[in-house]
């Protein structure tokens, strides 16, 4: 009985005893979860929270001038062209044996640029030489027979007068002489034809040599040894030229002026030209002629302009911008030069013409004063400077100080804008 009571006492819960110590495992789990949430928040802020800027396309502002002492009455764009340029080809179809030119090489008039395989031409000349020799031999043979026939006719003439031979024999000798004389004329003409044929064969041999038509610079090399060249476009792998030669002294500028402004242009008018490649270099020029024909589709008239400076930096097909000048009046101050920007860089905000300049990856709003329209460009007389970078087609929500990123059209990757 006592043993049962003792066992029951052992099963009784002692509520006065201190509670067991709590486990720290849950605390560590909570701390780890909190830290993970903080890290995820930082990553989300870095990826999504930080602004990467508005993607924009840009263009560079081009400075224009007016030469100080003269005012520009009209600006236009065009290209440098060569009035004397030739794609040199052979006069005959043949295989190229040797090419003696390279791009950028200077050549003189008559200088050999290439040679063709002369096998066929040499064979033709050898045959013509043999035929000319045979014709000359034939002439000598007939001439000897004519001399013999003439002597025989003279001898029979004397005998006929002495009645030693019949008149028929004499007439026969005279007929033979006249026949040989006609044969001699024919032989001489055949010899002349053979000589002409030989000279033509010599020309054929000379046609296998391609020479420069004038002094200039080689701008293109179009053929290689072993290729077939032909003066006619036959298609396939046949070349139509050996190379292109440009007379650098014949370079000039061609621009197209709108019909509405062509009245401002006059022959001998002073012009200031600026190459797109060298925008700080102002080249003096003057109007050569106004082509008396208009382009119906573009409503423009072509104007030829002579360059007064010869420089190796000026090459054909360079883009150029020209300003047609007039002498400034003594009481009229010189016009301050402006800049040219694409029309897409200008927009209207709050009733004002504005442009956005990219500086340190941020857009800066500039109020501008717009002047003349020059094709797809606009003249800006105030608000912008040459060399600055402007935003093309600025988004409607773009504001002063917004962060921007410059992207190149057609590229998937973008890079931050730099000043």
TrEMBL record:
Write out the coiled-coil annotation as residue ranges. 132-159
UniProt region (Disordered), positions on chain = 376-397
Q: Name one Pfam family in it.
A: YknX_C
Q: Which residues form the YknX-like C-terminal permuted SH3-like domain?
A: 340-406
Q: Which residues are the signal sequence here?
A: none
Question: The CusB-like beta-barrel domain covers which part of the protein?
Answer: 253-325
Query: What residue ranges are annotated as transmembrane?
Result: 27-48
Q: Which domain of life is it from?
A: Bacteria
User: Multidrug resistance protein MdtA-like barrel-sandwich hybrid domain location, by residue?
Assistant: 84-230
Q: Could you tell me which InterPro entries the record lists for this protein?
A: Beta-barrel_RND_2 (IPR058792), MdtA-like_BSH (IPR058625), RND_pump_MFP (IPR006143), YknX-like_C (IPR058637)
Assigned keywords, A-Z: Coiled coil, Membrane, Transmembrane, Transmembrane helix
Q: Which Gene3D superfamilies did the record assign?
A: 2.40.30.170, 2.40.420.20, 2.40.50.100, Helix hairpin bin
Query: What PANTHER family does UniProt report for this protein, alphabetically?
Result: HLYD FAMILY SECRETION PROTEIN, MULTIDRUG RESISTANCE PROTEIN MDTA
Family the entry assigns:
Belongs to the membrane fusion protein (MFP) (TC 8.A.1) family.
What's the protein name? Efflux RND transporter periplasmic adaptor subunit
Q: Which organism is it from?
A: Lysobacter panacisoli
């Amino acid at each position: 009985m006592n043993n049962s009571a003792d066992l029951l006492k052992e099963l009784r819960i002692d509520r006065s005893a201190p509670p067991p110590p709590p486990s720290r495992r849950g605390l560590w789990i909570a701390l780890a979860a909190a830290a993970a949430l903080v890290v995820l928040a930082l990553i989300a802020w870095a990826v999504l929270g930080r602004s990467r800027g508005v993607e924009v396309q840009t263009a560079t502002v081009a400075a224009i001038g007016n030469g100080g002492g003269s005012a520009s009455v009209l600006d236009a764009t065009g290209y440098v062209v060569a009035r004397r340029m030739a794609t040199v080809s052979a006069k005959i179809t043949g295989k190229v044996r040797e090419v003696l030119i390279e791009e950028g090489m200077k050549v003189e008039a008559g200088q050999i640029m290439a040679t063709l395989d002369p096998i066929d031409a040499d064979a033709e000349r050898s045959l013509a030489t043999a035929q000319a020799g045979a014709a000359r031999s034939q002439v000598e043979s007939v001439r000897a027979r004519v001399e013999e026939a003439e002597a025989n006719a003279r001898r029979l003439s004397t005998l006929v007068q002495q009645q030693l031979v019949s008149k028929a024999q004499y007439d026969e000798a005279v007929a033979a002489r006249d026949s040989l004389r006609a044969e001699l004329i024919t032989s001489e003409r055949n010899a002349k034809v053979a000589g002409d044929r030989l000279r033509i064969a010599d020309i054929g041999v000379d046609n296998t040599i391609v020479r420069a038509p004038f002094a200039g610079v080689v701008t293109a090399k179009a053929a290689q040894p072993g290729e077939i060249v032909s003066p006619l476009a036959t298609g396939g792998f046949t070349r139509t030229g050996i190379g292109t030669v440009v007379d650098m002294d014949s370079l000039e500028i061609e621009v197209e002026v709108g019909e509405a402004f062509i009245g401002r242009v006059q022959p001998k008018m002073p012009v200031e030209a600026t190459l797109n490649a060298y925008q700080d270099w102002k080249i003096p020029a003057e109007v050569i002629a106004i082509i008396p024909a208009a382009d119906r589709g573009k409503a423009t008239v072509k104007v030829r302009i002579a360059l007064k400076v010869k420089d190796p930096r000026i090459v054909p097909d360079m883009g150029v911008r020209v300003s047609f000048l007039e002498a400034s009046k003594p009481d009229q101050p010189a016009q301050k030069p402006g800049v040219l920007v694409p029309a897409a860089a200008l927009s209207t905000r709050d009733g004002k013409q504005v442009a956005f300049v990219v500086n340190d990856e941020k857009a800066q709003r500039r109020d501008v004063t717009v002047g003349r329209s020059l094709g797809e460009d606009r003249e800006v007389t105030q608000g912008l400077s040459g060399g600055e970078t402007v935003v093309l087609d600025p988004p409607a929500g773009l504001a002063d100080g917004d962060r921007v990123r410059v992207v190149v059209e057609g590229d998937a990757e973008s890079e931050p804008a730099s000043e």
